[in-house]
Amino acid sequence: MNGLMMSQQLSISSIVEHAERVNGNAEIVSVTADNPRHRYTYQQAFARARKLADGIATWGLAQGDRIATLAWNDYRHFETYYGSACSGYVCHTINPRLFPEQLVYIINHAEDRYIFIDPDFVSLAEGLVEECPGVRGWVVLTTAERMPQTSLPNVLCYETLVAAGSEAFQWPELDENAACALCYTSGTTGNPKGVLYSHRSTMLHAYATMMPDALGIARKDVVLPIVPMFHVNAWGNPYSCPMAGAKLVLPGSKMGDGETLAALINEEKVTMSAGVPTVWLGLLAYLKASGQRVESLERIVVGGAACPLSIMEELDTYGVQSKVGWGMTEMSPLGTVNASQATRENYSEEDFAKVRLKGGRQVFGVEMKIVDDEGNELPWDGEAFGSLKVRGPWVCSSYFKLEGSDAHAEEGWFETGDVATIDPDGYMAITDRTKDVIKSGGEWISSIEVENVATDHPKVAEAAVIGHYHPKWSERPLLIVVRGPEGKDLTSQEMLAWFEGRIAKWWTPDAVQFADELPHTATGKVQKVKLREIYKNFAFPV
Ligand code: AMP
To answer: Which residue owns the Cα nearest ligand 1 atom 22?
Structure first.
């Protein structure tokens, strides 16, 4: 027997309708190229999204066609998210930091019809035009007065387009399974793969991120996403904030600028923020140098890469609670959040320092398991390492235009490519990427744990560990270190001595190499494939 409840479709246009009615006065503040502090309300934002949609409706696109963006986090990008997706098109957010060949591949693979670009990216776009014949037009996210001189064909001005549209535009009824957004993963090898989110998956994910032990977003919050809107929808913040009625602060191109971030936090009274570890390093360096504090900032979520304990402890000194989150593009992205702060009294200082570094516990809606090489499920004992698999309504079932491909080896589960342990309390800890794991004499060494210890050294700015050929053990860890500002005199001996008593002796790297910088992907992850290439001729002393 079926229940007798309404089967309203979960579509993101319902966020617009809700926010306009009950959260209309909450603000969106943005840093943009043409206005260092633009400020308006959700009501105004969604009125403009409607006008934009009315303009797009004249382009003759088919439902499901892709409208792409090459843009920073700001209000026009926000309007484009909604103006495109709520009218039945797919908002394809492109990472402008990718190499031009990758951009061309992605644009053509996605069959993008129009691309919205920040003025900063006009020359980048000009270099792509010839190789992207399927793109019918380019929209520059600026005003008529500030339109740059450009050779782009069929170029439109965003503000002119919005001004011509009607606010009376009505959002069409959409099926909740219809696609609303597309984001390509920037893998370290091979071509990027497209993850196609649906209205339903986006809505459920946004609900889940709002839970108190997840990102915990409420009406009283002022949220500063320092995660790009071109990378997994800024962790769902552009959806969850209007749902909750939280004020949204968008930092534009200034995501790596500690001074702008501190100013935004203090002047806009930001309570919650989210970003990758490097963002916090930049902010903390600025705070230390300037002597400023960030009194309003209650908590942050840090994810995307393993977070060194030193960052979390320094944030403690500013009264900012930091929670680790883990996820991936294929998971919309949220998988786990570490809420150990909430039960801190249950831990000794030493245990808390260990547990707070873990990825955390699965958010309701995501299921996890770890398996061995034969696919046998491993115990949640905090010791066993295995390949991490996930499933849930906001997890990718297959990649765009690769449907039926082997996105996951086991039916119904997505293979994350991460290696993890899960402890009896459900705290998952990423120990490696499957392809980065170091096997020494047949035993696994967690490169992430070794890296965490290395980066805790006060003279180290960044560190990476790779498995490197060893005649006796087949592989041993090689540590590559970028010295910090106080580390000019750091030696291999001093570095290796640091591991004594901090990790198992046999996990200690066999050698250290110093580098000026580490190679990173467009999303800021260390490119270990490249590191292995750079150090391929290195020989461990025997
Ligand atoms: P992306 O799809 O670009 O967001 O990358 C997802 C990958 O980033 C995951 O599969 C992990 O390898 C890594 N990652 C994300 N969050 C964390 C975290 N908290 N700790 C360690 N690695 C992480």
So the answer is: 305
